[in-house]
Specification:
About 45% of the residues lie in helices and about 15% in strands. The chain is α/β, with parallel strands linked by helices. α3 (about 70-75) packs antiparallel against α4 (about 85-90) and α5 crosses α6 (about 125-135). It is globular and about 35 Å long.
Amino acid sequence: MPNLATIGYQGTTIDAVLTALKDAQVGLLIDIRAVAQSRKPGFSKRQLAAALDENGIGYVHLQGLGTPKSGRDAVRAGHPERMEPIFREHMTSDKAQAELAQAKILARERPCCLLCFERDHTTCHRHFVAEMIAAETGQPVVHLAVPL
């Protein structure tokens, strides 16, 4: 069973993220941002998918695994502890459950990495998603650190 990785791109570059993904032998990047747009060059959906493709890495956007706006707003307002209950409630929705099931299937097929913005996985919803996947698949979770 391949590892399940996570990565955040806050404070880094697309080249550094690509290097980290290649070094970890990631075959598929699962974008779990609710909004796959970014002001950081290279991280909006189309640009990111193209750069990954050029490096032999697949891309899928599972929007239903993203944090709802109210959760993102709580973090921006300096209350990250409010994000978790909002996110966990969101994960009971049909769309979130369907996309979580899809992520579990993908994670079993090849080495995958969950992508979101926050550098520190402990303050990002991606560690909850990784735990939900690993609870069923038994995969080890590796949080990739990208050089600044």
